[in-house]
Amino acid sequence: MAPKLPPTHPLEHSVTTVAGSQAPAHHAPPRGILRWLLTTNHKEIGSLYLIFSLIMFFIGGIFALVIRAELFQPGLQLVNPEFFNQMTTMHGLIMVFAAVMPAFTGLANWMIPLQIGAPDMALPRLNNFSFWLLPVAFTLLLSTLFMPGGGPNFGWTFYAPLSTTYAPPSTTFFILALHIAGISSILGAINIIATILNMRAPGMRMMDMPLFVWTWLITAFLLIAVMPVLAGVITMMLMDINFGTSFFSAAGGGDPVLFQHLFWFFGHPEVYIMILPAFGIVSVIIPTFARKPLFGYPSMVYATASIALLSFMVWAHHMFVVGLPLAAELFFMYSTMLIAVPTGVKIFNWITTLFRGSISFESPMLFSLAFVVLFTIGGFSGLMLAISPADFQYHDTYFVVAHFHYVLVPGAVFAIMAAAYYWLPKWTGHYPNERLAQWHFWLSVIGVNLTFFPMHFAGLAGMPRRIPDYALQFADFNMLSSIGAFLFGFSQLLFVLVVVLCVRGGKKAPAQAWEGAWDLEWTVPSPAPLHTFETPPDFKRPTL
Amino acid sequence: MSGGTYYVPATSRWPVLGSVALGIMMFGIGMQLVYDASSVIMLVGLVGILSVMGFWFRDVVRESRGGLYDTQMDRSFRWGMGWFIFSEVMFFAAFFGALFYIRTFAVPWLGGEGEKGVSALLWPDFVPQWPLMNPPGDAVVGPRGTFSPWQLPLVNTLILVTSSITLTVAHEALKEGHRKVCRNWLTGTVLLGLCFILIQGLEYYEAYAHYGITLEAGIFGATFFILTGFHGVHVIVGTIILAVILVRVHQGHFAKENHFAFEAASWYWHFVDVVWIGLFIFVYVI
After folding, report:
1. Which InterPro entries does the entry link to (chain A) (predicted)?
2. Which residues of A touch B80 (CB under 8 A)?
């Protein structure tokens, strides 16, 4: 099929100079640590994001294992309840803000310019700034654990008045750290939007972009829309704690429920910020290994946009038991259920892409297929939770924990793993060790399900979340979950091994590392040279 | 096709230094608030951030004047500034949303209204009203009075709207190539911004000295100060930006058709103006 439209582009394009006016192009970058501190290169910054995220994934993972070790048996064994609360809080905060979000931003940094044929991100210095804010923010956040009174202990949702009136003194530092992380996210998102809207290769229309780019465009919009709201609500917390205001105190005419509304107005889109890029990754990988174009490309784009818009109208489904008026219960119940429609479109499209495909099961594909199956389980438990009267029973039980871990671990995290295995040949020039990768995959799948599936039953039986001790009838489920958690946690070391081996050597990868892959990144050599697409490529719509 | 090139700066030390400076400032704020430490750490961080911004913008100005930027670069800046202002809109939206929620739901519910108005059991004598002069808790002392919107707030509204007009006149003059006219109108805009800040300061003094409207005076004081306070900070920042632009106009940095720094500053200023209109209506008048 020849492209019907001539490759005209409404925007003018330019060749690129790298380096300052006086310096020659491609002058030697600074060596050693300075190279990483001062870089403006999207690939180097992307690597920094990914390495940072991996480190934080392990730190957050250790916190999770502390939780699971304590819960291995009923009774208090290892940690005191105050520290347990700090672990649940920090595990959530680190995994959300320091592991999953930076991992997706790192992938965006590496792959968006390569996928749209751009020389770099639109604003390279701002890009570096966005990254280096993260280590600063999370050093500050982690340091609260060592402060008098301990770190944040009120859960990652930091509901007032637990996080204001009854909070440890370190909460002020937690707020300031979150401000820095928020600035990083907003600036990163602005950069990504500017890059996608302004830097596409001549001839590439919006509807020609790979879905990873599309989902990130929409994610970046969500980030810019809701991170400032988070900044606003934590500022109000800061004022309540330090300056005597009464935003979240009924005694002064404020309302603790106001905190929850503002938090979840940020928090629900935030959930989609962590899953939309995963949708994009899976939508890129499944066609490659099914050796078929993605089924229903436009509907994928529209479904993503619909999910993003709906995410602004569903926030109070996190607050069904807080005492909302009946009209609000009904509105948020039905609007939440509506999300199943565009999500169903996506699942349908992935399955239909596989239908009659010529499928092979390399590690990226395995993780993507597991994503489709296991994310759908998380989606279904989400539907159960959306039913307001049923949620009255499930609320704050382990059923909720099972639900959101199914969408975040075999959802977001598996997609990140899939992306790493998929693009490692492009990053390093070598294929990852497939045998080890398959071991990593199967151990992860077994570990994840062993950890989180029993939590459904524990929750339905009435086990509350965020407690260090529990009634005896939950003992078996918890023991299984803990065994699964340690299996999952330690099998991630295999992932590190695969990555290290892949960086050091392995089977050489050609430019087009996967047979069925035809996005622009596969037209540049593997490993991708430091500077690519300095002259914009002429984008040709694939003829399939 | 533009004849130019998309400029990718090689390396820069400002981003990482800026991150560290911001971290120092935040750490200093925390130390001061939590442990009553002196403000030295915070000020070191602040000076660091301001210096980094100065150097960073200096580099950008030099590159721009050196002809390194092309029209595609210009579009990147436009998208960047546009989405930055959108993020600011959402920041204020959180505070306006809080105000609307408090006025529409929280305070009436405290008075027992609605099917879930059980909180009335806590304070059965509480009478809901806005502005909230009588916070339900005994420990919270409400304000003694409120401002008339038709005095200082109205003056400030007129000042800010006028400043948007003078800025537009300055911009039109720049586009026509009348640099001196532009400079004069821009000077007027900066002065109007300073007047606004001065009057807002006066109003804050009145609030504390005579009206008992303080941060501690319940939810009215809290919403009043967080909305007007963050707006005031934005006016101060906007005035500084316009002052810098004024210096650059004076030095002849801007061409008739190429002056995005000027435009970005004026977008920002108009945004601050629009926020004030919202404030005037919802905080003062209604």
Report:
1. Cyt_c_oxase-like_su1_dom, Cyt_c_oxase-like_su1_sf, Cyt_C_Oxase_1, Cyt_c_Oxase_su1_BS, Cyt_c_oxase_su1_dom, Cyt_c_oxidase_su1_bac
2. 122-123, 126, 190-191, 194
Domains of chain A: total: 2
Full residue range of the structural domain in which residue A505 is found: 275-531
Distance from B263 to chain A by nearest Cα, in Å?
18
User: Which of A232, A267, A302 is a domain's end point?
Assistant: A267
Q: Are residues B74 and B64 in the same domain?
A: no
Q: How many helices (H) and strands (E) does chain A have?
A: 18, 1
Q: Would you tell me how many other CB atoms lie within 10 Å of the CB of residue A8?
A: 8
Is position A254 within any domain? no
- Whether A251 sits inside 8 A of B6 (CB atoms) is no
Query: DSSP label at A464?
Result: B
- Assess whether A405 carries a catalytic annotation: no
CATH of residue B224's domain is 1.20.120.80
Q: Choose the mutation target among B27, B56, B219, B260 for the interface with A, i.e. most A CBs under 10 Å.
A: B219
Query: Cβ of B75 and A232 within 8 Å?
Result: no
Q: A346 an active-site residue?
A: yes
Across the range B37-44, mean pLDDT stands at: 96
Is B87 close to A232, i.e. CB distance below 8 A? Answer: no
Task: Provide the number of structural domains found in chain B.
Answer: 2
Domain membership flag for residue A255: no
Among candidates B10, B106, B218 on the partner chain, residue whose Cβ is nearest the Cβ of A18 = B10
Check whether residue A234 and residue A313 sit in a common domain. no
Spot the catalytic one: A13, A40, A47, A156: A156
Known catalytic membership, residue A268: yes
Q: What are the b/e assignments for A332-352, b being 16+ CB within 10 Å? A: bbebbeebeebbebbbebbee
pLDDT-derived band at B123 (thresholds 50, 70, 90) equals confident
- Domain end, chosen from B19, B47, B69, is at B69
Band the pLDDT of A30: cuts 50, 70, 90: confident
Q: Rounded to the nearest 5°, which phi and psi values hold at A314?
A: -125, 5
Spell out which residues of chain B touch residue A135, defining contact as CB-CB under 8 Å. 19
Instruction: Please state the ipTM of this predicted complex.
Output: 0.96
List the alpha helices (DSSP H) in A199-312: 211-242, 256-273, 276-290, 297-310
> Is A91 annotated as catalytic?
yes
CATH classification at residue B63:
1.10.287.70
Q: Which residues of chain A have a CB within 8 Å of the CB of B73?
A: 14
Give A5's pLDDT tier (boundaries 50, 70, 90): very low
Q: Say how far residue A236 (Cα) sits from the centre of its chain.
A: 26
Quick one: which of A489, A369, A348, A499 has its CA closest to A421? A499
